[in-house]
Amino acid sequence: MSTASTALPASSIPLFTTVSAFRQWRNVVRREGKSVGYVPTMGALHEGHMSLIRRSLAENDLTVASIFVNPAQFAPHEDLATYPRTLPRDLEVLEAQIYTIPGSALTRTPSAVFIPTVQEMYPSGINQDTAAQRGTFVEVKAYGDQMEGKSRPTFFRGVATVVTKLFNAIEPTNAYFGQKDIQQCLVLKRLVRDLLLSHPDPEHLHIVPTARDPVDNLALSSRNAYLSPEGRAVAPVLFQALQIAKESYLEGQPKGVCVERATQHILSVASQSTMASEIRLDYIEFNESDTLEPWAPERRRIATEPPVILSGALWVGKTRLIDNLILGNIEDIHI
Amino acid sequence: MSTASTALPASSIPLFTTVSAFRQWRNVVRREGKSVGYVPTMGALHEGHMSLIRRSLAENDLTVASIFVNPAQFAPHEDLATYPRTLPRDLEVLEAQIYTIPGSALTRTPSAVFIPTVQEMYPSGINQDTAAQRGTFVEVKAYGDQMEGKSRPTFFRGVATVVTKLFNAIEPTNAYFGQKDIQQCLVLKRLVRDLLLSHPDPEHLHIVPTARDPVDNLALSSRNAYLSPEGRAVAPVLFQALQIAKESYLEGQPKGVCVERATQHILSVASQSTMASEIRLDYIEFNESDTLEPWAPERRRIATEPPVILSGALWVGKTRLIDNLILGNIEDIHI
């Protein structure tokens, strides 16, 4: 039932390029009563994606990944054209994921990869210029205005739109997203709840902890491939700055002090780099995890206060890095 | 499995007020392999709604209606508060619909009515002021700007949002909408296609011809209940004006002449009414059925040209009436 076209690399995992072909597969496994875990990706797969795949393999009968670089989430000036596209390697990496069910000799590997065209995902077409767009778009108002949304005003609209479509096409039992994109995770949880989606329902949209470089804790990202050696050396400063802000927060310092200490650390490290002039902090923010509004310190006096999200974005040359820490327990986030 | 609360009228049809209760029912009938026809309504049911119900009864194993007055499609100055709410009578009317399967003694009646609360449909809440809204909204760009969209700028956003939710909750095999709201039908067909919905898929979203008063052809509408006797007497002028515009179109007259003749008819009839000063034409428009852009006469020279939609809106006192004619074959509309 694979619809692998000749343009696709060889793969031992069935590849689907159209919604209708995927749906035939999906209907068969539905009748078999099998659960389907889903990991949406833009390709350029790294260990962060693999942590999502492994979690899905462990928790579902079948696992589906999608690879689709979504034009609607890139602004006209952003890196759509240069975003890394490494499909042959991505498929090899997926094929190599083998999960052994504990206490048995049974194994699971990814069951299907959905690789749609832009036309398949955007039947009305898609224009990078939002003013010229036609067709259906999904927006999560007020939850996408802060943090990443402030720097990338149409980003979450593009994400919400494509993920609504992907969820409708895949109809997953469970879906897995990386904590690195925490605001995306929370916006999508809100979307699933608001649109009354059942595939997945809000409780089955899972946030998986950020995968990091084991030595210097840099959050893994497909965009790290853009970094020069000098840029890669300085990149962990964002995580370090967030840690400093977290320590200040736990000391009970006010927000201004927390952010100031973190910013000073970045300035200090940057000043010692040959790239000093190209390192620019976009933001460090504290936000409420249930509303994404700015941290309201008075809420912390309540015993059942929701966690706070501490997040940041940093330009290193032409590469924009993001990272975040959750101040509290990720299971206590209810949005 | 009915979750009828004590506040609901008695009904022989199972009533569901929550998505989760409805889903239990839906999952049972899915396992039984039964098709589900769906008629979304805002209540105040009339013969137009019944024509949709009868079509659904004829074409599906089971028929579900919903009754929900959707706040998001009313602008703050519009008639949300006064929109007719006639639930006990609506349920009686639905109970009375009995379809006999041709050539048999078997009958079908509506199987379920979904009557959600505003909170159930808008988990993030809903504010009439769009600037203050939070949560997820669906927009069909460029298809909702003309005709009704020009006069009611946030109307189709409200419709697209609630229907996306209702389709996700009901998961119908077939859905039925009245041609009176032709732009709504076409915007929703575009939405279903763009969002890759399978419940229903675009081919199973059906447009049912407008039900009319058998004597004077007034399009049936819940809002007709607002009309005074004088207003009701003059209301058929909109249909007459559209007929005049259609005849001019078929004669080959240019758009300006068609609209002018229709407008003159309305002015002439209005001038003889005691309500003359309260009768105001909002618009008469010709639009392409596949793009909803203004009628492009040069396309009519093509043998396979799509139909043209001739539509209008008229204020009679505080009541806004709409109507439309399709110039061509409704089956040739592909959006």
UniProtKB/TrEMBL annotation, chains A, B:
Gene Ontology MF annotations: ligase activity
Pathway listed: Cofactor biosynthesis; (R)-pantothenate biosynthesis; (R)-pantothenate from (R)-pantoate and beta-alanine: step 1/1
E.C. numbers: 6.3.2.1
Gene3D superfamilies: HUPs, Pantoate-beta-alanine ligase, C-terminal domain
Keywords, in A-Z order: ATP-binding, Ligase, Nucleotide-binding, Pantothenate biosynthesis
Family to which the UniProt record says this protein belongs: Belongs to the pantothenate synthetase family.
Name the UniProt record assigns to this protein: Pantoate--beta-alanine ligase
Species of origin: Mycena chlorophos (Agaric fungus)
